[in-house]
């Protein structure tokens, strides 16, 4: 797991910056009901997506929350007075506080997404929607030469798998309410970067140094492969 306090200053530049944030926010808002008056953005990070959620829908009151000091400080610069430091598994909000809750690139980081899904359902008003990214790791499997070498090493069941999240949502009275997709920006994988992740056990740890060497020997090791396409799922509280 990254140290998000240390990562805050350079986080946006390494993850697609404003173009990716714009694509993510547009896709999230497409799943949020037009009559929604409030939205809570979980794990808002630097607030780069959160700000676009606020500016992209006039009349929508947006609140961001994150557990890392560094991230909340950066987010507060973008949304003064609208950012709260909090653990997404124990939110400091009353039941039925929001018309919508979003979680972009959060659930895949957790050992168990269930508590976050439960909290999202708790703070939603009846008829409100929870919008979250799912299957993040799978989004990076774009049919590249890197994928051909690593496909047998990515067999673990993801905590943000769509089926798993749908089942967890159902446990808390949330039913499927739509889906959307958006493309990443500046996130196409390179062989050299993936080889580094393998050696540092951030990806495909079972492959070890031998797999890392094979990946790094692919042609054009510093040329990004195809951009990932991320998936959002919406769940409506009954």
Task: Please specify the SSE layout and strand pairing.
Layout: H1 4-7, H2 17-31, E1 38-42, H3 48-55, E2 61-66, H4 69-78, E3 83-85, E4 98-103, H5 114-123, E5 124-134, H6 136-139, H7 145-150, H8 162-171, E6 174-183, H9 191-199, H10 208-216, E7 229-237
Helix pairs in contact: 2-3, 5-8, 9-10
Spans of at least 5 consecutive residues with low confidence: 1-6
Helix/strand-derived category reads alpha/beta
Report the biggest beta sheet as strand number plus sense, adding barrel if it closes: 7 strands, mixed
Strands ordered across the widest β-sheet: 3-2-1-4-5-7-6
CATH A-level architecture: 3-Layer(aba) Sandwich
Number of H/I helices: 10
Strand portion: 15-25%
CATH superfamily: Vaccinia Virus protein VP39
Description:
The longest helix is centred in the N-terminal third of the chain and has 15 residues, at 17-31. This protein has a single domain (4-137, 158-188, 227-237), classed as Vaccinia Virus protein VP39 (Rossmann fold), CATH 3.40.50. A seven-stranded mixed β-sheet has the order 3-2-1-4-5-7-6, with helices on both faces. The protein has helices at 4-7, 17-31, 48-55, 69-78, 114-123, 136-139, 145-150, 162-171, 191-199, 208-216, and strands at 38-42, 61-66, 83-85, 98-103, 124-134, 174-183, 229-237. Strand 1 (38-42), helix 3 (48-55) and strand 2 (61-66) form a beta-alpha-beta unit. By secondary structure, it is an alpha/beta fold.
């Amino acid at each position: 797991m990254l140290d998000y306090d240390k990562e805050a200053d350079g986080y946006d530049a390494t993850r697609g910056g404003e173009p990716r944030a714009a694509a993510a926010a547009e896709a999230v808002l497409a799943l949020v009901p037009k009559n929604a008056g409030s939205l809570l953005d979980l794990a808002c990070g630097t607030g780069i997506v959160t700000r676009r959620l606020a500016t992209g829908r006039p009349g929508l009151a947006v609140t961001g929350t994150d557990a890392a000091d560094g991230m909340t400080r950066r987010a507060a610069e973008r949304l003064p007075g609208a950012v709260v430091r909090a653990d997404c598994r124990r939110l400091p909000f009353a039941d039925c506080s929001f018309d919508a809750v979003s979680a972009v690139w959060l659930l895949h980081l957790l050992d168990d997404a269930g508590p976050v899904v439960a909290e999202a359902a708790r703070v939603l008003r009846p008829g409100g929607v929870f919008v979250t990214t799912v299957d993040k790791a799978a989004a990076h499997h774009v049919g590249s030469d890197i994928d051909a070498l690593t496909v047998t090493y990515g067999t673990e069941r993801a905590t943000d798998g769509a089926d798993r999240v749908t089942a967890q949502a159902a446990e808390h009275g949330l039913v499927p309410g739509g889906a959307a997709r958006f493309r990443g920006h500046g996130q196409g994988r390179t062989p050299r970067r993936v080889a580094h992740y393998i050696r540092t056990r951030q990806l495909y740890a079972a492959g070890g140094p031998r797999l890392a060497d094979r990946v790094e020997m692919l042609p054009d090791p510093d040329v990004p492969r195809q951009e990932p396409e991320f998936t959002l799922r919406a769940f409506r509280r009954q």
